[in-house]
Design goal:
Length: about 90
């Protein structure tokens, strides 16, 4: 069941992480992208503006493991984007 939500601005300056206190105890995270494309990684290495999985505005990514949620990072490829995240147990 869903128990927490957050939104964050993603810029092309530095990769951002999800807020640990907000998603604490989550088993899944549903992440949607708004505004501009972003690149993401969840393997412990930060994405760059040219390296990582490319997500477009309107795309949704579902992470199914606590470790993947903890290691998730996102960076915009150009203009700022927003991510919206719903956490579930």
């Amino acid at each position: 069941a869903a128990f927490a939500y957050e939104s964050a601005t993603v810029t092309n300056a530095v990769a951002v992480a999800l807020t640990p206190a907000t998603g604490n105890g989550a088993m899944t995270a549903n992440i949607t992208v708004e505004g501009n494309p972003i690149r993401v990684r969840w393997d412990g290495t930060a994405p760059t503006t040219s390296e990582g999985h490319l997500l477009q505005s309107g795309d949704t990514l579902k992470l199914d493991f606590t470790a993947d949620i903890f290691h998730f990072r996102a960076i915009a490829t150009g203009g700022n984007a927003k991510i919206r995240v719903t956490y579930s147990r």
